Amino acid sequence: MTIEQHILACIDGSAVTESVCGYASWYAERLNMPVALLNVIEVPASTRRDLSGSIGVDSRQILLQELSQIDEHRAKIANSYSNALIEDAKSHIKENFAVDVNVYQRRSKLLPAIEHFKSKNRAIIMGRRGEDHKDSRINIGSQIETVARASSVPILICSEAFTTPNSYMIAFDASKTSIRAIELVARSQVLKGMSGHIVMIGNNDDSSKNHLAAAAAKLMDAGFMVTSHHLPQTDAVNGLLTFQAEHNIDIMVIGAYGRSKWQQLFLGSTTTEIIASTSSPVILVR
């Protein structure tokens, strides 16, 4: 039995929600798939605690009843907010895009909710900063790395208002994740017909150069319009972002979190630096 796939759009009512809806709909149109709007309801934990020994039995019972009412009220408010958010997002998509829309609301953490639809997810769309970080100095939402490390499908991260992409660049370093990114792009219709660039920073050994040539050939054999670039800069993040700005690249494709969390602790993450430093959408591939 064939399982109908969808483009999963994770929305939370933050400022990037409309952008998430736009890029999810664009992605879905390119693949002729529906959009699945997912809102995860995380109701705050109950404020109840063990009051035994501090006050009388009757008083404890009355307080516990009041706390139960507070919990129930919180749940109702969360459900009402989720319903309104989902309906607004669905209306926005229907008014601006020609795609079918499915809606899902789950009471859980984000990653388990996403994994519940694992067999249906063709791609996941997330905002760079969620509602939980809208006023903080953190440049990317706390959930992005967690979801990216667990996902086997592309994740598109966006932050600015949706504009139809016309060009893309693939960050290539001859690693397994960057080669996988090339293979994924070659098999998909999402970026086909757009002006494409494969960009390698440094890596001046013959093996890396051969991998770059093979990557470009693979995409061209699949019918893509792509140009390869081997740049001498030593700082990969600055080199990629400079190239993007100079060539007005609309969307970036990068291999996501190739290092382990332990390595990242000492060496940092190129993936996180790029996501945090660009306002353009980024497609992550693991």
Structural class: alpha/beta
CATH homology superfamily name of the largest domain: HUPs
Order of helices and strands: EHEHEHEHEEHEHEHEHHE
Regarding CATH, which class of the largest domain? Alpha Beta
Describe this structure in words.
The chain has two domains: about 1-160, HUPs (Rossmann fold, 3-Layer(aba) Sandwich); about 165-285, HUPs (Rossmann fold, 3-Layer(aba) Sandwich). Helices cover about 45% and strands about 20% of the residues. A ten-stranded mixed sheet has the order 3-2-1-4-5-10-9-6-7-8, sandwiched between helices. It has helices at about 15-30, 55-95, 110-115, 145-150, 175-185, 205-220, 235-245, 260-265, 270-275, and strands at about 5-10, 35-40, 100-105, 120-125, 155-160, 165-170, 195-200, 225-230, 250-255, 280-285. It is elongated, with a radius of gyration of 22 Å. It contains nine helices and ten strands. α1 packs across α2 (about 55-95), α5 runs parallel beside α6 (about 205-220) and α7 (about 235-245) packs parallel to α9 (about 270-275). By secondary structure, the chain is an alpha/beta fold.
Brief write-up:
With 286 residues, the protein is of the alpha/beta class. It is built from 9 helices and 10 strands.
Set out the fold topology.
Elements: E1 6-10, H1 17-31, E2 35-40, H2 57-96, E3 101-106, H3 110-116, E4 121-127, H4 143-150, E5 155-158, E6 167-171, H5 176-187, E7 195-201, H6 206-221, E8 225-231, H7 236-246, E9 251-255, H8 261-267, H9 270-277, E10 282-285
